Amino acid sequence: MTDAPARPHWLPLLVVGVIGGVLSGAFGVGGGIVMVPLLIWLTGMDQRTASATSLAAILPSVVVGSIGYLLRGQVDLGAAIALAVGAVPGALIGTWLLRRINIGLLRWLFIALMVVIAVRMVLIPVERGERIEETWWVLALLFVVGVVTGIASGLFGVGGGVIMVPVLVVGFGVGDLVAKGTSLVAMIASSAVGTTSNLRARAVDLRSALFVGIAATLCSYLGVLLAFVMTPQVSSILFAALLLLSAGQLSVRTIRRGRADRRARAADAAAEPA
After folding, report:
1. I need a labelling partner for 255 at 20 to 30 A (CA). Which of 60, 114, 209, 261 fits?
2. CA 152 to CA 90: how far, in whole Å?
3. pLDDT by residue (tens digit) across 19-37?
4. How high is the pLDDT of residue 1?
5. Closest alpha carbon to 248 in 93, 97, 108, 78
6. What are the residue boundaries of the structural domains of the chain, listed by start?
7. What are the entry keywords (predicted)?
8. Are the CB atoms for 248 and 115 separated by under 8 Å?
């Protein structure tokens, strides 16, 4: 009879939640880019369980962070809805494609794009307070951005906020606070859909998600306050660092997956009869 896997201690789970919650509120991202590797490192979770648990835990903190930005008038609801409507089917398309295509080259192109965007955010000043002109074609374009964001999230395992915020700032000239608030509101729907799917598949460690989620939710509003204290320049530099961190993590996963694929092909070739 095999022993049941040990449950993670509550203290590292709270640490993960605090970090994820502050990042969520301060930068308009889900926090998974840091929470997933921390869950793997500090608690010994496998990649799939860590990703599913992180998504479930961050959902309430995304809601709290969204409320914080809404109360300060730093959310473009029309843009958020357009992004969310596109992101949900986009994520489903991305996860479907993940099982059917070789995306090695696509991963490296996406990594290069993230690095370019990070450099762009540092070099080009951000004007705080700029908003989106909500014409029908702009909303249609935001819907397309949502679809692309969802597909990228499904394919590469990168959270939607890491894509939405720089696209809104760099592509649409939106102020950093509006971009963060709009991104958080847009992520509510996609996070809820993803969490529901993971719960049905029993991929979530509910006890760990509860500890992480409580800490993340309590600290999310602290992150929102931090966002309003930071200058646009400091915010851009720190967000660029977060993008580079995301690119680095994705690079490591891509290299490891490539090595695993080569070993599998070598094993298959060795097993073939002469």
Report:
1. 209
2. 8
3. 989 988 999 887 777 888 8
4. 43
5. 108
6. 10-257
7. Cell membrane, Membrane, Transmembrane, Transmembrane helix
8. no
